[in-house]
Specification:
7-stranded mixed sheet; 17 helices; alpha+beta; 1464 residues
């Protein structure tokens, strides 16, 4: 009913009048609640109790009611007759409070009269729920903790001064917590406590509540204390041992429950429990726990409460307890104990060296009559009956190694802990790796032992394990709770996990307090209701438990009494379906998926938002975990995903990151804020599932997020429909491969304990049906691995039907599109035929095949080798592409017989030049060779290599030209040839040299079908390996004068650098570019920069990267176009990150400088540290042996290795652990050449850092000069310093004497000297010159390679004056120790020398270069020298090419940097 009926001008006057004159104190109470401080609000007027209408009733009004009654803080202000409708008058139609009043009559209110005649009814009676005057805070539940009372404003601690046991009894009774079992003083106050309660309570123990106890003000208003008082209450306070009707130190175990003595069941009774009982009764220690049927009249006299003591507790009530379910003990078999009877008795220590006899009585029922102080527990398993096994000894908790760990061992643990039967014996740190000692290994229990440490083993503390092998168990008493629903978070069928299986819970009887405990435990609010109108549930399952009766003292569902466990506790119609009424719902909106978006909460029927004040990743983590969306990637502010509407529910959120629900985090208060929707918060979560360890986000090992960490999914019963759901959820197209047997990472402590049963149509993996793995562990042979692709389906279409010949079409994002023929190759065709089971490719007919609509043609280019089984497994490029809008689509004719064996191709006959077969088809024969380009930075540039007879080999550059290169580029689908490189431009290969003197016309289908010297016939070495650069070779860079990760974006295409256009370029595209350039994961376009000067191609526009793309080359775009956009649209980009330094000092650096030893007593011993990713890190000692140490020592120049050091013997390092599981042969030149886990992937801690001790002192490297070789290391200790100096001075004097004699005899002896030394000098210099030349060849990454002028240009040579100065100067020279047949050469850089990119064509002086071509060897030697007069005698320093020994291959020197070559 509208308030306007009562708040007319006349009604408002009445309201104000009531405020002013209605100040008489009326009697107030709360009626029909569970206790004095909750219920329907009633006031007494004219001797009659009446109610208050709930119009405008809220927490402010309830706060005043609670304060007036001394009932603490207001928790809720229920409306709508929540505590039932009253009878009698309705005294108030409206009450309005500010919340600060001390009594309800101080609030504004309507006239006191009965409003029933005016149409109000008791269906709108107001109520209040108060916290109560006293509470126990900071304990394990509502029945233990620090005593605090409510002042009407805040909770205030009570001091321990003069606090009595009787007062504690009253508090325990008021709280419904049984009896007091402990009163402790000296408990430190909270830091936030600004006050202490200024009264002392003088209870007599019989008062109904603390509020009514007598109080005495503390002297001076301040109570004397040494801290706060803490009280522990329990309903399990009294225990006794009964025999023949009397209590003594042996007999049946009985406990007082709510005033009635009941015997305990023996099914889960343990020796640890018995020890606690004996200690509590002052009866010494437990000697035995006899078992057997002992009939007790009346099943109600036996309790199935299960205690889980460790054995060192002083009272039974301090042990963890489980009440729910339990075995059927109605026919006896009660727990009994025989104590030693002497509380001061000291027992002899137990002997660990002797295990118990298998199956002995002592093993089953008693402890040996000795002292054993060890304790046992299960950790990180979610309860006392599952987890990692840990033993306490000598003050340290330690673990058990899983070597030989099985169910017999687990049975001992479960029985020892009173946790029933063992369901699973887990290994490999299934419950996470522990810490501390490893107490036991190679355990071999029979299953009957009383203690796990009494089983046969290797010996206490003896092992060869690490914590990644920690053992665990899952016992039958392990319990878990959940709600099952397709679309609701806090409503569904209630299920409990017991005895290794999920089963239903029965609903009769299930009162409100039980429903509240369930909802609270599931994080779904504080109240709920049973829904009996739902249809009967389909399927069959255990119906585990019925008759659940929770009490106010129960802190969890497991403590609620119930009927015993039974597989059929009720009928299917009685399965419980619960809706938690106080629950809130959470969702993410407008983020492109269910795991990213604006955060919205549903409460009171309205979706509202969260303000971003204080919003950070900790808050986002709670949201992501609550939604089952994995980890938080980003916490978004300022309504980045759009503004919401409706209420703003939360502000100033301050989550710790571990809360179960976001509304449980500290905040300003529900609905309280000072924000607008422009400040709405959002999150980006990682998602529930990911594919890890593959080549991108669309392939790899299947892992799901537990809310804490990523956990792999086993391949046991993993299905293709499940994989399809994963691929669709990740936006990765369709599943093309599901693999098992993938090894788990060694760091995986757990495997996901459920099997997914997707049907393939679900939107996300998290909504698929799941089945718990038997025993909590899934059967597997490894992790499941899935490969997804957006290029999953291909077909050949002719006249509208799919067959084994026709136009190549591919399903891309759900639409069939024809592929362009511009880069279509025979290798691609072979893969298509194989994928379609159509045999092999016979031809690829070309020509215009018109397709209506240019959008139906895709310019995606595949670069297959020809041996792949599926087209999607080939490298792919989508960026750019030619304009195919007018036809020219790819076509294939397959042989049609997948089992057909074709005749072997004849290599001796080359194809006719220009033949149709040359251009469009493969010869109708089998050719198993493969072609690839290596070390060029992509599939379309590099050294040419051919696979034949299982070996990759190269092509010699004799006669290598653009015609040869064109065949290679076309064969690989890489467009046209831009450059045919020689002299191992992309580095020297290995293996055979398959072809030499190649003479292609340019039209052949395969490079090995060109005329040549013959297969495998050559006179070359790998320094002459041929290479190509094709037009489809792509590279990316940013151009800026002073910034590393910001600048104009340029792409290298068709041999030229050109700009990239910025329209449209979304965030995902920018992120892809920054990531590819090593500049972080995000960035932004800068549109405010001035127009760029100069002209250049603007190669590509319309780039639209997708989540599935792993590089810019895979992103679709408009076709290549020299003028794709205007100069105003050239992209200038700023990336958020910076690429890490590649070297610890100034680049460049050697492998030696990326390795160091730290913490040792000398420079050649210490902890091994490596430089990677911009920082120093360590190496884990897994698999670390003398072979690895040898490589480190040799790499550092420290001589042979003496010792491989483990376990951080030189002290633990810091930072990353870069390498793990390093495996060297011992002869590698660098640690990087050894096998190892991927960088940064380890399961180690710094306590496992590896070290070395080497035999020698470290040698010092000279500065790294291009072309120099390191000097030989002198033998230490042979010469003293004075002796060395004398030798040097003597040598210098001798050298001066020789020079003088030589000058005197120069003219007379010159010709004879020349003739006698010329051959020797030629021999000495030749090989060293070869070494220098190959080192100076420009590689792909050199400054000159991708310069604008770098393609198809003459090589640059040194100036005359440079050469003249070079060989006349006398720089310092070093001597090196080489092999017997190797002479020394040294290259000294010329100061100020220009790089290749700085030289111009004017600097090429061919007339000053001596070039001689040998007709016999087909090689040349180009050496820069001073032009000499023909009449002068040539300098002996110059070596002529025609005199070269035919034993050596000829070499060509194409200098990329000006340099001097000197010979010694």
């Amino acid at each position: 009913m509208a308030l306007s009926q009562y708040l007319s001008p006349q009604g408002l006057c009445v309201l104000l009048l009531g405020t002013m004159v209605g100040g008489q104190d009326l009697e107030l109470r709360l009626k029909d609640g569970g206790h004095r401080c909750e219920g329907r609000v009633e006031v007494k007027h004219q001797e009659d109790w009446g109610t208050v209408n709930d119009y405008k009733w809220g927490l402010e009004e309830a706060t005043v009611v609670c304060r007036q009654l001394g009932c603490g803080a207001a928790i809720d202000a229920p409306q709508g007759a929540h505590f039932g409708p009253a009878v009698g008058p309705i005294w108030y139609s409206v009450i309005y409070c500010r919340g600060t009043e001390s009594a309800i009559m101080e609030c504004s209110h309507s006239t006191v009269k009965d409003y029933r005649p005016e149409g109000l009814s008791h269906d709108q009676d107001a109520g209040a729920v108060c916290s109560g005057f006293v509470r126990l805070a900071g304990g394990d539940g509502p029945c233990s903790g620090r005593v605090e009372v409510h002042s009407g404003e805040d909770w205030t601690p009570v001091s321990d001064g003069n606090f009595t046991f009787l007062t504690a009894q009253v508090i325990c009774a008021e709280r419904g917590c049984g009896k007091v079992v402990s009163v402790l003083g000296h408990v430190p106050f909270r830091d936030s406590d600004s006050r202490v309660w200024a009264e002392e309570f003088r209870c007599e123990g019989e008062e109904p509540e603390l509020w009514s106890c007598p109080r005495v003000p503390c002297p001076g208003g301040t109570c004397h204390h040494s801290g706060a008082v803490q009280v522990v209450c329990s309903v399990y306070t009294e225990v006794r041992l009964m025999k023949n009707g009397s209590s003594q130190c042996e007999g049946q175990v009985e406990m007082n429950f709510s005033g009635r003595w009941r015997a305990l069941c023996a099914s889960h009774w343990s020796l640890a429990n018995a020890n606690v009982v004996c200690r509590q009764l002052g009866c010494g220690v437990a000697v035995s726990i006899p078992r057997g049927p002992r009939c007790v009249e009346g099943s109600e006299q036996i309790s199935t409460v299960r205690f889980h003591c460790s054995g060192v507790e002083f009272f039974l009530w301090s042990c963890p307890v489980t009440v729910l379910g339990g075995p059927d003990c109605s026919h006896g078999n009660t727990a009994s104990v025989i104590c030693s009877g002497n509380q001061t008795q000291v027992l002899p220590p137990c002997n660990d060296s002797v295990s118990e006899p298998a199956g002995s009585v002592a093993s089953d029922e008693s402890a040996p009559y000795c002292s054993d102080s060890r304790q046992l527990r299960l950790v990180d398993g979610g309860g006392p009956c599952a987890g990692r096994v840990e033993i306490l000894d000598q003050g340290s908790w330690g673990t058990i190694c899983d070597d030989g760990w099985d169910l017999d061992d687990a049975r001992v643990v479960c029985r020892q802990l009173g946790c029933g039967e063992a369901l699973n014996a887990t290994g490999s740190a299934h419950f996470g790796a522990g810490s501390g000692p490893i107490w036991l290994n190679d355990l071999n229990c029979t299953g009957k032992e009383s203690h796990v440490w009494r089983c046969p083993s290797r010996g206490w503390g003896r092992h060869d394990c690490r914590h990644k092998q920690d053992a665990g168990v899952v016992c039958s008493e392990f319990l878990a709770l959940r709600m099952v629903s397709e679309d609701q978070q806090c409503a569904g069928w209630l299920e409990v996990f017991y005895n290794g299986t999920w089963g239903s819970v029965c609903r009769s009887p299930m009162e409100d307090i039980t429903v509240s405990v369930i909802c609270r435990q599931l994080g779904c609010g504080d109240s709920g209701s049973l829904n009996t109108s739902v249809a009967v549930r389909e399927g069959s399952r255990p119906r585990w438990v019925d008759g659940i009766r929770c009490q106010n003292t129960d802190t969890s569902f497991w403590q609620c009494p119930s009927d015993p466990w039974n597989c059929s506790s009720c009928s299917p119609m009685e399965e419980a379906y619960i809706s938690c009424a106080g629950s809130k719902q959470l969702r993410l909106v407008d983020g492109g998926g269910s795991c990213s978006g604006r955060v919205e909460i549903l409460d009171q029927g309205s979706w509202g938002t969260i303000c971003d004040d204080g919003w950070d990743l900790d808050d986002a983590r709670v949201v992501c975990r609550q939604l089952g969306c994995g980890g938080a990637l980003n916490a978004l502010k300022f309504a980045q995903l759009g503004q919401g509407s409706g209420p703003i529910w939360l502000d100033d959120l301050n989550c710790g990151g571990k809360e179960s629900h976001v509304w449980r985090c500290p905040s300003r208060g529900w609905g309280r804020h000072d924000c607008e929707h422009a400040e709405d918060a959002g999150v980006v979560c990682s998602g529930f599932v990911r594919l890890a360890g593959g080549e991108g986000p669309c392939s790899g090992r299947v892992e799901v997020h537990s809310g804490e960490d990523w956990t792999p999914v086993s391949d046991g019963n993993f299905t293709l429909p499940t994989a399809q759901v994963i691929c669709a959820e990740l936006g990765c197209g369709k599943a093309v491969s599901v693999l098992g047997h993938v090894p788990f990472r060694e760091s995986d402590g757990r495997v996901w304990a459920e099997e997914f049963r997707c049907e393939g149509q679900e939107p996300e993996l998290r909504v698929c049906p799941r089945v718990p793995c038997p025993g909590g562990t899934c059967h597997h042979s490894g992790a499941a691995q899935v490969v997804c692709s957006v290029y999953a389906e291909v077909r050949l279409m002719t006249n509208g039907s799919s067959q084994c010949e026709g136009q190549v079409e591919m399903n891309i994002s759900g639409r069939w599109r024809v592929l362009c023929a511009s880069h279509w190759s025979l290798a691609n065709a072979n893969v298509v035929c194989r994928q379609l089971n159509c045999g092999v490719a016979i031809s690829t007919p070309r020509g215009p095949h018109f397709v209506e609509g240019g959008d139906q043609i895709s310019t995606v280019r595949f670069h297959c080798l020809g041996v792949e089984s599926f087209l999607w497994s080939c490298p792919v490029v989508a960026l750019g592409g030619l304009d195919c809008s007018h036809g020219n689509t790819a076509n294939v004719i397959c042989s049609g017989n997948q089992t057909q064996v074709l005749p072997q191709c004849n290599d001796s006959v080359s194809e006719p030049a220009g033949s149709a077969a040359s251009e469009e088809s493969a010869l109708y024969c089998s050719d198993s060779r493969q072609l690839r380009l290596v070390d060029g930075g992509g599939p379309c540039a590099g050294r040419v290599e051919i696979l034949d007879q299982g070996s990759w080999g190269t092509i010699c550059d004799d006669g290598w030209d653009l015609d040869d290169a064109r065949v290679v580029c076309r064969q690989l689908g890489c467009g046209d040839a831009l450059n045919a490189t020689g002299s191992a431009h992309f580095g020297a290969g290995t293996g055979p040299i398959w072809l030499d003197d190649l003479n292609c016309t340019g039209n052949e289908s395969h490079v090995w079908r060109c005329p040549s010297r013959g297969w495998g016939r050559h006179d070359c070495r790998h320094k002459e390996d041929a290479g190509v650069i094709c037009s489809e070779f792509l590279a990316l860079r940013m151009v800026s004068e002073d910034q590393q990760c910001a600048g104009w974006l340029e792409v290298f295409y068709n041999g030229t650098w050109g700009s990239v256009c910025h329209s449209p370029m979304e965030d995902i595209t920018v992120s892809m570019i920054c990531r590819q350039l090593g500049c972080g994961d995000s960035g932004s376009l800068n549109s405010s920069v001035a127009l760029r000067e100069g002209s250049r191609p603007r190669w590509v526009d319309g780039i639209k990267c997708r989540k599935t793309d792993t590089s810019l080359w895979q992103c679709p775009s408009d076709p290549w176009n020299y003028n794709s956009c205007s100069p105003k649209e050239e992209a200038y980009m700023s990336c958020a990150g910076r690429s890490p330094k590649s070297c610890p000092a100034a680049a460049p650096c050697t492998d030696r400088e990326k390795l160091r030893l730290r913490g040792g007593d000398r420079e050649c011993s210490g902890r091994v540290e490596v430089w990677h990713g911009g920082s120093w890190g360590t190496v884990c000692d897994d698999s670390w042996s003398l072979a690895e140490a040898e490589v480190v020592c040799q790499q550092l120049g420290c001589g042979p290795a003496l010792e491989a050091v483990h376990a951080a013997a030189f002290g633990p390092g810091s930072g990353s652990i870069w390498l793990d599981e390093v495996r060297c042969g011992g002869r590698e030149s660098s640690l990087w050449d050894c096998a190892a886990e991927p960088w940064g992937q380890s399961d180690c801690k710094h306590e496992e850092d590896a070290g070395v001790r080497c035999s020698g002192a470290r040698t010092t490297l000279p500065p790294n000069i291009a072309g120099t070789r390191t000097t030989s290391t002198p033998l230490p200790g042979i010469f003293s310093l004075p002796g060395v100096l004398c030798l040097i001075l003597g040598a210098l004097l001798f050298l001066v004497l020789v020079i003088l004699v030589t000058q005197v005899l120069r003219w007379r002896a010159e010709h004879r000297a020349l003739s006698s030394y010329e051959d020797a000098l030629a021999e000495a210099v030749y090989e060293d010159l070869d070494y220098l030349v190959t080192q100076k060849e420009g590689l792909l990454g050199s400054p000159g390679f991708l310069s604008d002028d770098s393609v198809n240009k003459m090589p640059c040579y040194m100036r005359d004056d440079e050469d003249n100065n070079d060989h006349r100067s006398a720089p310092d020279q070093r001597t090196d120790a080489h092999g017997e047949d190797y002479d020394d050469a040294e290259e000294v850089p010329l100061p100020g020398a220009l790089s290749a990119s700085q030289w111009s064509e004017e600097e090429v002086l061919p007339e000053k270069v001596d070039t001689t071509r040998s007709s016999q060897t087909g090689s040349s030697l180009n050496i820069s020298r001073e032009a000499t007069d023909p009449g002068e005698e040539e300098s002996p320093w110059f070596l002529q090419g025609e005199e070269a020994d035919t034993e050596y291959d000829d070499v060509e020197l194409n200098a990329l940097e000006a340099s001097i070559v000197t010979f010694t």
